[in-house]
Amino acid sequence: MTERIEIVVDGSTVVTTRGTSVASALLDAGVTAFRVSLGGSVRAPLCGMGVCYECRVTIDDVPHQRACMRTVEPGMRIDTGAGE
Amino acid sequence: MTATHGDALVVGAGIVGAACALALARDGWRVTVLDRAYASAGTTSVGMGHIVVMDDSPAQLALTAYGVERWRELAPELDARSERDPCGTLWIAEDDAQIAALRSKRETYGSARVQAELLDAAELVDAEPNLRPGLAGALLVPGDEVIYPPGATLRLLALAREQGAVLREGAAVTAIEANGVRTDSGTLRADVVVNAASVGAAALTPELPIIPRKGHLAITDRYPGFCRHQLVELGYLTSAHSMSGQSVAFNVQPRPTGQVLIGSSRELAGWNAELNRDVLRRMLARATDLMPGLGALSVIRAWTGFRPATPDKLPLIGRWEPTPGLWIAAGHEGLGITTSLATAQIIADRIAGRTPAVDDAPFTPMRALAAAPVQ
Amino acid sequence: MTATHACDVLVVGAGPAGIAAAANAAECGARVVVVDEAAAPGGQIWRSSSHTPPPRAARRWLRRLRDSGAAVESRAGVVDVERRGDGFHALIEREHERVLMNARAIVLATGARERFLPFPGWTLPNVFGIGGAQALLKSGMTVRGKRVVIAGSGPLLLPVAASLSHAGARVVLVAEQAPAGRVMRFAAALWRRPFTALQAARLRAAFMRTPYVFGTWIAAADGDERLTSVEVVDADGGRRRLACDVLCAAFGLVPNVEVARLLGCELLDGFVRVDGQQATSSASVYCAGEPTGIGGVDLALVEGAIAGRAAAGHSPAPADVRRRNRVRRAARELDAAFALRPELRSLADESTIVCRCEDVRLGQLDPSWTTRQAKLYTRAGMGACQGRICGAALECVRSWPPDTVRPPLRPARVATLLPE
């Protein structure tokens, strides 16, 4: 399926395709700051398989969601760089 | 600072032992702290790190109020790793009967010159929006604090080292003797020996009525601003006070990272440190009862620990007459962090022949010899 | 919201081992439920999505799984499992609810994760694992036109390089840390195993122009808010800078043995010890695939089959036993060929982050500390990954044994952990 769908990333519309993981969609949209570490540095996916928790973002107002373990849905709202 | 006294040995490098080491070192003693493992290895590493005035008895009130004051005085000397947070405590009232109890509590605190103010229902919602709606109010104790116990313990030891104190880790004390201790590598002599061995204190001084009282804790991921104060239910006092059975009581604490520390539970389970799933579930249930939003928070870890408990709920602080040179600083149950500096100062004062700032008669370890055996 | 179910065999993990175990157990007549965190079965190696169809072998097995009648619960993570009565009670978390599962027997097919070793710059965005990059690619990540460096160790390097290349990436370097001699001897032995040799040949042909070098590793990654270049250490000791957009770096695989340890299964050299029927030291708990020893798809499938039948009370098929022993031998040789060189343990300097969750730098960790002291004093290992990333690194770098396992097995909502 290459059905194009729209999600919202940090308030802006991003076009992606159904079946894409949130992490892959964000990376393709040029996002490099998924979250901010305790020491203030930006972090992005590392392990790609739900182990490292570096790709955590807020999805539809629920924080600490592993972007690599979630699939995009139409209208999904993603907020990144959540200062922790 | 040159030592003006002789040698002092402190058994146990938990927060109480570290506090004793600092007080004695600053008094001019040549201090050696001995720990069978490493600094903060025991109870100090597993507790909540609260510094809280507790009024379950007049003696406890005086001691904890003194303890809170000592932490406030020491604050400028603490470091980042101690993670001191002067967030205050909110004692929660679920209904009007509990509000009445809080009013009386405010008077009691006032008598000990501890600032406390009553918040009504609306003010409570403002102060802590994530508490369940419909609560009657709370008592705010703004002077209470939270620290990170392992960090603070290391800091106290570092300050003690500045006065020449020495820490020997991996040094197990097998017995306490007159003016000395026996270890695996020989006997050490000292003018003063302080038994600050927490749940292990009774193994060294068998008459001490200290038994392990198991607790559970859970910590969440980061949710900055979810709660701003340490939160406790009035029932915490009942739970802390009773000696039998299993009990849980709402006690939640913010960490500087925004993580929420969720407690509390008490049970007598011998030395079984295994996580008790039923107790953990009940503890979390009570917590979500008072703070429904907790349900959605992600728990990263859960663990257990042992509090050193005594039958009359008071610690044992002072000279142990039967053994020359021996002082006891143990049995603090859930108030070890709170009263560590106060305990240390009382010990240092008595050794120096000074009158302590609080009446220490209720804490005399000698009461163990006069009392009935522990249940 | 809580749902309660019961089954005969609970299979944890839906990679090849779990799929084989579940299909076999169900074919023996057992009521089987497979629980898996991913969106669809397949694990890592058979990961599929709308972007990537499953490989042919996977399709056959997935069809067999479907036909067997085993139930698959995807997007479901095991948070806790304990013995209860004669069997087991598992606590499972889904996106919006929890599932309580009672089972008579358990097959652990929890796979493996990558081993990450810290080096300066490894926390920069666009530094991925090798399997990690593959996973992201299969879930839709675009790499077209990107300059990619793949570095680390093991047989994953080439297949992932091929995948990325096929997807349009410019793979500018594939750096295997093992010395050429060792890997060549391993490759020379491939003639005895026709299938793997064919795979290797196909891969090599796929990107003849990409430098695949041995005895080479990445000493550092550089960039501001994202990766822009890496520092390469060549086999002759020379250092050079190489501009790139993506670095895939990982050093072998670490078995996921947390559930096994929670259930009291004995480990041997870090892997779950199993007998001829894939039974662990813990009664009615079986284990198959990577957690018993890193061995790839073929071994996972045959171990899964044996474990599934055993969990359903049936003895293994003799052909499976023979095949397992054959494939296991091959797996051991692989291990030796790709053993990690000592230099990789000292890539991190004092300012390199070791615990990513809590931002603890190497310089903050006193080498004389136990793991527990490190945790208490710095909070290393106390973050959301529960020490899975830094723990493996620390074990490698400082030989620190792992800590006790307690529930929750991974972060779980308070609501999931409430009374049942």
Short recap of the structure:
The complex is a heterotrimer of chains A (84), B (375) and C (420). Chain A is mainly beta and 84 residues long. Chain A has one helix at 22-28, and strands spanning 4-9, 12-17, 35-36, 42-43, 56-59, 62-66, 77-79.
Cα radius of gyration of chain A in angstroms:
12 Å
Q: What characteristic shape of chain A results from the CA principal axes?
A: globular
Structural class of chain B: alpha/beta
CATH homologous superfamily name of the largest domain in chain B? FAD/NAD(P)-binding domain
Give the spatial strand order of the biggest sheet of chain A. 2-1-7-5-6
| Order of H and E elements of chain A | EEHEEEEE
CATH class of chain A: Alpha Beta
End-to-end gap of chain B: 47 Å
CATH hierarchy: architecture of chain A:
Roll
Main sheet of chain B: which strands, in order across?
5-6-4-14-15-16-13-17
Identify the overall geometry of chain B.
globular
The unreliable regions of chain A are none
DSSP helix fraction of chain B: 25-40%
Instruction: Please tally the β strands of chain A and state the result.
Output: 7
> What oligomeric state do these chains adopt?
heterotrimer
Our estimate of the beta-strand percent of chain A is: 25-35%
Indicate how many domains the architecture of chain B comprises. 2
Kindly provide the radius of gyration of chain B, computed on alpha-carbon positions and rounded to a whole number of angstroms: 20 Å
Textual characterization of the structure:
The complex is a heterotrimer of chains A (84), B (375) and C (420). Chain A is mainly beta. Chain A has a single domain, classed as 2Fe-2S iron-sulphur cluster binding domain, sarcosine oxidase, alpha subunit, N-terminal domain (Ubiquitin-like (UB roll), Roll). In chain A, 8% of the residues lie in helices and 33% in strands. Chain A has one helix and seven strands. In chain A, the strands form two sheets. Chain A has a five-stranded mixed sheet, with helices on one face. Chain A has a two-stranded antiparallel sheet with strand order 3-4. In chain A, strand 3 and strand 4 (42-43) form a beta hairpin. Chain A starts with a strand and ends in a 5-residue tail after the last strand. By secondary structure, chain B is an alpha/beta fold. Chain B folds into two domains: 7-49 and 149-209 and 312-370, FAD/NAD(P)-binding domain (3-Layer(bba) Sandwich); 88-143 and 211-308, D-Amino Acid Oxidase, Chain A, domain 2 (2-Layer Sandwich), CATH 3.30.9. Chain B has ten helices and 19 strands. Chain B has helices at 15-26, 58-74, 96-111, 121-127, 149-162, 201-204, 235-241, 277-290, 336-352, 367-370, and strands at residues 7-11, 30-35, 50-51, 89-93, 117-120, 137-141, 145-146, 166-169, 173-177, 180-183, 186-189, 192-195, 211-222, 230-233, 247-254, 259-266, 298-309, 316-319, 326-330. In chain B, helix 1 packs parallel to helix 5 and helix 1 (15-26) runs parallel beside helix 9 (336-352). The model of chain B has no long low-confidence stretch (mean pLDDT 95). By secondary structure, chain C is of the alpha/beta class. Chain C has three domains: 2-113 and 254-316, 3-Layer(bba) Sandwich (FAD/NAD(P)-binding domain), CATH 3.50.50.60; 116-251, FAD/NAD(P)-binding domain (3-Layer(bba) Sandwich), CATH 3.50.50.60; 348-398, no CATH class. Helix content of chain C is 30%, strand content 25%. In chain C, helix 1 (16-27) runs parallel beside helix 2, helix 5 (180-188) runs antiparallel to helix 9 (318-337) and helix 8 (296-311) runs antiparallel to helix 9. The N and C termini of chain C lie close together (10 Å). Strand 17 (298-309) of chain B pairs antiparallel with strand 22 of chain C, so a sheet runs across the interface.
